[in-house]
Amino acid sequence: MGGLNAALNSGRSSLQTNQKAIEITGLNVANVNTEGYSRQAPVLSPYPALEFGGFFSGTGVTVSSVSRSHDVFLAGQITTKSAEVGLESSMAFPLAELERVLGIGDGSLSDEFDQFFDAWRQLSTNPGGEVERQMVLQRGELIGNAFKNIYDETQQVVTNINNSLTSKIDGVNLHLEEIAQLNNRISSIEMAGQDANSDRDRRDFLLKEVSQTIGATSFETSNGSVSLQLANGMPLVEADKVTNIKAVYSGTDVDLVLDYGTTDIELSRTALGGEFRGLYEVRDVVIPDVVSRLDQLAYSFATELNALHQSGTDANGQYGQNFFVAPGNHVSQGYANATASGFGTGTIEVNVNGTVSSVTIDATNNSVTGIAAALDAVTGISASVDPDDNSLVVTPDTAGENVLIDTSGLSIGSYAKPVFSSVDMASSLQLNISTTNQIAAGAAPGSLISQSYADSSALEFGIGNIVVNVNGVPVNVAIDNTVPGAENNSVEGIAAALNAVAGVTASVDLNDNSLIVVPTTPGDTISVDASALVGGTYSIPAFSLVDLSPGDNTNALSILQLEQQPLTGLGGNDTLVSYYGKIASTVGVETARNRQAQQGYEDSLVQLQNLRDGIDGVSLEDEMINLMQYQKGFEASAKFLSTVDEMMATLLTLKR
Amino acid sequence: MRATEITTYRSLKFFLDSTNEKMQKLELQAATGKRINRPSDDPTAISPVLSARTQIQTSNRYIETIESGLDHIDNMDGYLDGIENIMVRMKEIAIASVNGAMADVDLETYADEVNQLRESLLDAANAQVDGKYLFSGFSEKTEPFTLNPQYDPALYDVTDATTYPVLYNGDSGVKEFEIAPNELIEVNSTGNGFMMGDFDNDGVTDSGASDLFAVVTQLQEVLLAHNQPTTLIAAGPTATATTEGVLGVTAEVQDLDLSGESVADGDSLILTIDGTDYTYTNNSGASLNGAALAAAVVADLSVTNYTLVDGGAGVVTISQDAGNESDIAPITTTFNTIGPTVEDLIGPLEDAANQVRNQRSYKGNVGRRLETALDHMEQVKVDMEEFRSRYEDADILETITDLQMQQQSFQAALSVTGKVSELSILDYI
């Protein structure tokens, strides 16, 4: 057979083919805004030619397949770039939050430091003033709150990060499941010789999403399915098998594990990429660093200030107490080897509640254990080595005592000088004193007052020696009643005898006949021990400290020095404010870098996507022209068919 | 490259986003006037900005401190001026009362005035500002000067603070203000210095310095005694025994030469031997001097282990009676000397007034230094503001210009977006 019937058949195939082509164009137009959709095109091929009457003629056209425009290189680039965009963009929000917390404007921690010292400076002009003292107390409390607020807010950031981690896991697992299903479908469809174009588009899109969230990489196997794995090679999807990710909670901490049913494999930060890696970076690297430096700042501030405060005298005439609650333990950085002689030699100064001891470190004990033993020998503290990381751990024997360890006297060795800090110091910095009287603005207490007596000239005391100690030098003062006319066992007599001692001025308080002993040079330490007096009817004078000098601002002035002084605990070059500035600028640098990188990666991702969509995407213009083209083809086929039909009719009219 | 709908719109959206973000940043800069609103805006500027802020804050406080120091100095100067005037008036009285034509009753009137002035002096020295004593050192709640209830003109001893007419209860605390980093300036004056002449803080009046209260009290006493010298106890010469005090050898106490001295009836002479005081009281009914005095002293004192011998010419010798174990210890005497007359007091009064004048001029210098420091600190503050501003503040002109540029480009982007959506192939087929 041939002839017109064959032509009819050919026309039919042409109609069908053009119709199919229009359908495909319609599909392209419909998906013009579908993310990841690749332009499809009909592949037309003529039906094989058949021999008719000695020559070959074609029998029509068919859509042999629907091709999908796809560039493997660009798809791979986009997937990789997505991981980078995911990493940087996930860091942006928590970093911006951190940056806000570690502000540099009014109300920031540096501002609090300025205000705190300003209060002390104000106090130094009027050390007895109740208002000024109240200011110092309030500023001290506020600075503690400022530290705590920063700490709390960083922990809030951590909580937010944990929340977004857990909320993203379900999405990732769904994606993984879907990829596995698509693997299955694509391989079975393609095995049957069909095209799985839209499935592949969907899978490419999912791979990009998964790359963006957890940085998983993939490769395609020969049967068309992809293997998806984490950065460290752990498989996530293998053909149609999925390993799910799940969150493990320990307290408020969240960790990610690969769920192998009976066993879990913990995912470290380096195993991840994309958004999860970014969140992990902020949570496990940036924030702990900021917190430990805040701890260091609070630690140095508290211990240095306490030591200065303790050397002064408060409004009750007593030695100053700890201004802030002293840290309970003092831990240095870790070292590689506990017994290696890695440190330099020299001296370490240890100040335990005002008592300064010097520890000599030489070639025999310049190891971690050696220093620990040497520090342990200091009265008032215990020192040991933490076997986990070979760090030095120092604890005061009496809880609440202030310990200030200055290692700046060590020479440079292969090990860095130990720098002590205390974990959680930033979050627990709070005032130890509670009343304005306890603020020690004056020099070391010196003035002593005894109990009062009935008569200042009555010879009623016992006799013997009174020991007067001026700056550690004892002097015996004889009280005697044996020589008539030279008796000095009266209040006045004792005052005169004590007054004769160099370095002290003694007098009688005319109101109540008590003895007052004052160091001639303010700041000298004096003590008077009259316990060796024997006999007499008057009780032995017992001296207690009294603040006779409310106008003394000496200690306030020395505390002011702390503001401008580079502190050993802060590396020896930084003041309190500049150390805070460094913390803020570290976060600032990281945020600025992140912003820059995020912008760069997004820019290049946009470029790549434009490239991909330029090549593989749907252009309405193209599709409209194709539409017109196929429409014309359809119209022509129809015309052809009607022509053949007319010819058939003509033929049929031949016989009447 | 083919431009497809999705690429066109994506590019436009990206561009609009980034222009919008730039605009937002510039708007924030324009609104706050600050170039740095968060650490990441310029991490390198954080350290200079924070340090400048600290310095501005401290400068403000230094300025307040200096002003309070100046107030302090002004207050003190007011009282010191009062004290100086009192001393000048004292000197006038002294000069006026030297006139031999003065009747006793006039002298007594003067004595009365001196007494009143002495009270004023005490009040001025106990000056209080804001409930705190100005001249008591650190002991600002302690009244620095109180009358000595045990004062006895006859027992006045310049080396013994307990015999002074007025006692100093303050301390020697030097109150310093920090007026610039590590620059301290002494703003107070302790009363023991310029009032009592105890500049070395050893509790007694320094030699060459004046105890204003003692001088004034003496003036009052001598005026009350109608310018007749009263007998006052003064420190006597220290007598040192010859060193070799072997048994039988007579140690002559050369310095205990009584030939020039006299002891009035009822007055005493005190000998100190080996730390023990022996008092001779003249009960003879008449004033004794010279050899008679020495003889009376020797006759009166029976000293265990020692024998006092009248060596003639007013010289008392001392010998050891028993035992040969020790040298003759140094002996000191304290005996009555004649008190000063009004004439004698004119010089000390002038010295005392000068002592106060010196203190005023010293404080004047401190005041001048404070004023210089104030100017300096105000300059520092301006400089630091400028420094901080350079780092932190936005250049408003630049910001506004940039903002307008961005707004224009945003508008351009918007109109392009509009044009793109207007242009469609669908309108043409």
Could you give a quick summary of the protein structure above?
Chain A has 656 residues and is an alpha+beta fold.
Radius of gyration of chain A: 44 Å
> What class do helices, strands and sheet pairing of chain B give?
alpha+beta
Q: Per DSSP, what share of the residues of chain A sits in E-state strands of 2 or more residues?
A: 15-25%
Main beta-sheet strand count, sense and barrel state of chain B:
5 strands, antiparallel
What distance separates the N and C termini of chain A? 25 Å
Helix content of chain B: 40-55%
Could you say which overall geometry of chain A the principal axes of the C-alpha atoms support? rod-shaped
What number is the mean pLDDT of chain A? Answer: 88
What are the secondary-structure elements of chain B, in order, as H or E?
Answer: HHHEEEEEEHHEEEEEEEHEEEHH
